[in-house]
Amino acid sequence: MQGRNERNTVELRSDACEKTWKVQMDGRRLTVGWKEFAGAHDFRIGDIIVFRHEGNFMFHVTGFGPSCCEVGYEQNNIRNLSMEQNLKTELESLSDSSCFVANISDSNLREDRLFLPRKFVTSNDLKKGSNKIVLMNGVKTWRLNLRFRESSETFYMRSGWRRFCHENGLQSGDSITFKLESNSAKTPVLCFSTAETKSDSTKHRSEGKRKDGEKGLVTLTVTPASIKYCRLYLPRSFIKDNKMETAGGKKINLLDKHGVKWPVSLVMLKGNGQMHLGLGLREFLEATGVKANESFMLELDWEDTTIPPIFKFCSKIKI
């Protein structure tokens, strides 16, 4: 790659999360950004890291342990990349150091834990000896465990975070504001407010304003890697809205504009809820005239959930 990458920057991705990480290169060494990527994936000394170049300085990264077994990111595995979103600045600090905004995500709900921003921790002198944290809204209190993760030097609260969100009507995509009320007796107390923190998608669901037909439409963008590796991901929100979690691992049909059926594999990745179109995708794209760096719209036809879903090609989309 020497002499070809004038930007001195590459992009890294993995099967563990949707995020793409930008990392700088110095010769053959990965420098700025690599520490964050490795920390989020919990890579350790002795691990084997495999890079697969997908074109345009994009690399797919897979980690293997010292035994040459692929690093898993299952729900109860301490190497789980639930920390992916948490370590990518899941929490945004406010100008007031005693306050921070937390974003509710699929990962922190699934893992039942939420990381506290470092700026909040250092500004308010939270101590490692603290093992409980109290959340309160003036009416009710919730006591959660408070833990410290040495590798990232970050506090997180767990064992009750999911229940807290459920009882306050918080869903993935929502946000909540916390303010430190007290930091005495080794048990921090946070006050919170959920007013006007609902995401637009949650508001639309709760108000019933979303049209039934809209959730069956999805716009996908084809990259050179999509064509080369026959892999095109469906948005998680689309999968969730259409209850497609059980449809993975099957052959489905994509219909072109003439109604011709093109069989394509629908692949579900274990552990992170991602789903992508697989083998057969390249032939479908050729038939519909969709090329790399172009977008197109599909419509889901799946009234009978006892059979595999069908997608109808609608049109190309100009971005």
What do you see in this structure?
With 319 residues, the protein is an alpha+beta fold. It folds into 3 domains: 64 residues, At1g16640 B3 domain; 120 residues, At1g16640 B3 domain (Beta Barrel), CATH 2.40.330.10; 104 residues, At1g16640 B3 domain (Beta Barrel), CATH 2.40.330. Helices cover 18% and strands 36% of the residues. Strands 6-7-12-13-9-10-11-8 form an 8-stranded mixed beta sheet. A 7-stranded mixed beta sheet has the order 14-19-20-16-17-18-15. It is globular and about 70 Å long. The chain starts with 8 loop residues before the first strand and ends with a strand. About 13% of the residues have low confidence.
Write a brief caption for the model.
This protein has 319 residues and is α+β, with helices and mostly antiparallel strands. The protein has helices at 34-40, 83-86, 106-111, 118-123, 161-167, 200-207, 224-229, 236-241, 281-288; strands at 9-14, 17-26, 29-30, 48-53, 58-64, 91-93, 99-103, 113-115, 132-136, 141-149, 154-158, 175-182, 189-193, 217-221, 232-234, 250-255, 261-268, 275-277, 295-301, 310-317.
